[in-house]
Design a protein that fits this description.
By secondary structure, the chain is α+β, with helices and mostly antiparallel strands. The chain folds into five domains: 6-93, GIY-YIG endonuclease, CATH 3.40.1440; 104-245, no CATH class; 254-369, Nucleotidyltransferase, domain 5 (2-Layer Sandwich), CATH 3.30.420; 385-562, UvrC, RNAse H endonuclease domain (Nucleotidyltransferase, domain 5, 2-Layer Sandwich), CATH 3.30.420; 568-619, DNA polymerase, domain 1. It is 44% helix and 18% strand. It has helices spanning 6-11, 38-45, 54-62, 74-88, 136-150, 170-173, 187-201, 206-221, 225-245, 295-309, 326-337, 349-379, 381-391, 442-466, 489-501, 536-564, 577-587, 590-594, 598-602, 609-619; strands spanning 18-23, 29-35, 65-70, 95-96, 104-107, 116-119, 128-130, 255-263, 266-275, 278-288, 316-318, 342-344, 398-407, 410-420, 423-424, 430-433, 482-485, 508-513, 519-524, 527-530. Strands 13, 14, 15, 16, 17, 18, 19 and 20 form an eight-stranded mixed beta sheet that branches. The protein has a six-stranded mixed beta sheet with strand order 4-10-9-8-11-12. It has a three-stranded antiparallel beta sheet with strand order 2-1-3. Strand 13 (398-407) and strand 14 (410-420) form a beta hairpin. The chain is globular and about 100 Å long.
Length: 626
């Protein structure tokens, strides 16, 4: 890095909004901030005097150089700041320790016969989404009850194209679906059921309760006690749902209520989720703070990070105290959501009571979970820091480990597992079927897996660059800070050769095992480094090694199972997946198929005369009817 002249660079700062990134001597980004006027904000860090917190003083002492990114508006700076914090996780930024998502209920209103289903996040489609909900179990119960109440289909058949192609499923026979797959209900009538389901999901229970009560009483009057019992069970379910959702009205608005509890470096943010005036759930988040951080700053950082990553935006966000950038954050969230979002500090009444409730919950969790949080930090990020010290590296966030699995060369597979900040990131795990290597050659198989993994990554990066989407991520674009091989010198040499050939500079270490197949040490830069078996680093390395092996073995077992699944129909010439499915749909059992006449076989739309003759002959010892 070229010499950085601080005073000269301060003079060059632009008089415009933007984002600044502070780097330390190791070129790590240690802080990301935004400014309405970069020139004024960045200079403040390096001016004498002022009421700087201990955290800011420590950070400034470690700054080796800084860079700035200019944008057109304060709102754009806010968005960019959030994205950069999530990407680089700087040391001196307040960081969320949780990466939680909340399920939604999706109604596919764009379909001719819509469905009600669970969705992990809203999609970019024309469906209607309800939520988010904190309790996934409650979401599944709600969807199940919606299907029962309104007899909505839960299949994935493509309608109306597939109407009449298959028999109605069990739900039709137990009166929980009106079988639109058979044309037994018109789109208009089905649409009425969907509209009632949407009213139910929006919390309008009263009309439904009255209707169920009336039907239950009418069935009982006609001595149809079975139907009356069914309506009674549905009525109890709806009443239970109503009671579970019911809290103070709060003018039927969507609100998030945020509270904070702090003690030393430990802090808990508690969030209550209120939708349509009903408390649908709550959750808490651990955040990392430094000595001297003000509560208002922690809340401000939390709000920016949390709402940068959540697709749902309430109309109001309740906070326990004013935050410094409330107005600009409100404008940003309003633009992001398409409706006005207000940041409110309630002072009295029911709103203030709910805020006090959230604060007491946060304080309780902080007192209860403090030691648990510290233990979790030690076994994750603390273990990563120990590995950094052992290898003489810094800035390790993402680690990738690879393993090969086969039985005498049969169905060789490779696994790639990913750990970020000491925690498994299962969405980034990848599987590889070995294509280029024949026989049991683990070294060659590992070379293939690594070559394919990083070649895919480079190609994806180039494609995104050509499209002007460098900030986006594909399946392989995110490269590791450390590559961990399941083995010693041989596996490490293979990995380093692949990386060198592709022009990549990524440190590689081997996880060495002893004669009893237990982790013994790390092989790095041609030296085996012993590890304290009681250290958190040792425990993390063992977990990574075991996870890579487990993932590879599971994939290999799945492939073997698929290869062993074999139908007698697969032995008949001319019978592929489509015809096999058609035959089993028509005849249900092998005995029925074996007894079928040639005319019955020819009557199946997917069959022709010659194939029907082949099937008949197969089951009749080669006999062909005249």
């Amino acid at each position: 890095m070229k010499e950085f002249n601080l005073q000269e660079e301060l003079k060059k700062l632009p008089d415009r909004p933007g984002v600044y990134l502070m780097h330390d001597a190791m070129d790590r980004i240690i802080y990301v901030g935004k400014a309405v006027v970069l020139k004024n904000r960045v200079r403040q860090y390096f001016q004498n005097g002022g009421n700087k917190s201990p955290k800011v003083l420590r950070m400034v002492s470690q700054i080796a150089w800084f860079e700035t990114i200019v944008v057109d508006s304060e709102a754009e700076a806010l968005v960019l700041e959030c994205n950069l914090i999530k990407e680089y996780r700087p040391k001196y930024n307040t960081m969320l320790k949780d990466d939680k998502g909340y399920p939604y209920i999706r109604v596919t209103v764009e379909e001719a016969f819509p469905r009600v289903m669970l969705a992990r996040r809203p999609g970019r489609d024309h469906s209607r989404y309800y939520g988010p909900y904190v309790n996934a179990g409650a979401v599944k119960d709600t969807i199940k009850l919606t299907h029962r109440l309104f007899r909505i289909r839960d299949c994935s058949r493509k309608l109306p194209e597939d109407i009449g192609k298959e028999r109605p499923c069990l739900n039709y026979h137990i009166h929980q679906c009106d079988a639109p797959c058979q044309g037994y209900i018109t789109p208009e009538k089905y649409g009425e059921a969907i509209r009632k389901a949407q009213d139910f999901l929006e919390g309008h229970y009263e009309i439904l309760i009255d209707q169920l009560t009336e039907k239950m009483q009418a069935a009982a009057a006609e001595l149809d006690f079975e139907s009356a019992a069914t309506f009674r069970e549905l009525l109890f379910s709806v009443q239970k749902m109503e009671q579970r959702q019911k809290v103070s009205d709060l003018n039927q608005e969507n609100r998030d209520i945020i509270a904070l509890a702090m003690e030393g470096e430990d802090a808990i943010v508690q969030v209550f989720f209120v939708r349509e005036g009903k408390l649908i759930g709550r959750d808490h988040f651990h955040v990392r703070v430094a000595d001297g951080d003000a509560s208002g700053q922690v809340l401000e950082d939390f709000v920016k990070q949390f709402y940068a990553g959540t697709p749902f935006m309430p109309k109001e966000i309740f906070l326990p105290e004013e935050i410094g950038e409330a107005e600009s954050i409100g404008r940003w969230l309003s633009a992001k959501s398409g409706h006005k979002v207000s940041l409110v500090v309630p002072k009295k009444g029911e709103k203030h009571r709910l805020m006090e409730l959230a604060e007491s919950n946060a304080q309780m969790i902080l007192g209860r979970d403090r030691e648990k949080v510290k233990r979790e930090e030690a076994r994750t990020t603390g273990a990563v820091h120990e590995i950094e010290e052992l290898l003489g590296l810094s800035g390790i966030v993402r680690m990738e480990a690879f393993d090969i699995s086969n039985i005498s060369g049969f169905a060789s597979v490779g696994s790639m597992v990913v750990y970020e900040n000491g925690r498994p990131k299962r969405n980034d795990y990848r599987k590889f079927k070995i294509k280029w290597v024949n026989g049991p050659n683990d070294y060659a198989s590992m070379e293939e897996v690594l070559t394919r993994r990083f070649t895919h990554g480079l190609e994806e990066r180039e494609t995104l660059r050509e499209k002007g989407m460098e900030e986006a991520y594909g399946k392989f674009t995110n490269f590791p800070d450390l590559l961990m091989m399941d083995g010693g010198r041989g596996q490490v040499n293979i990995a380093e050769a692949v990386l060198s050939q592709l022009g990549l500079d990524i440190p590689v270490c081997g996880m060495v095992k002893d004669d009893n197949h237990r982790t013994r040490g790390l092989y790095f830069h041609n030296v085996e480094l012993p590890i304290d078996t009681h250290s958190e680093a040792f425990q993390l390395i063992t977990r990574i090694q075991d996870e890579a092996h487990r993932f590879a073995i599971t994939f290999h077992r799945d492939l073997r199972s698929k290869n062993q699944v074999h139908s007698v129909l697969d032995d008949i010439d001319g019978i592929g997946p489509v015809r096999r499915k058609a035959l089993m749909r028509e005849f249900q059992t092998m005995d029925a198929l074996r007894s079928a006449t040639l005319e019955q076989l020819e009557a199946i739309p997917e069959m022709n005369h010659s194939v029907a003759v082949t099937v008949y002959a197969f089951f009749h010892d080669g006999e062909i009817p005249e």
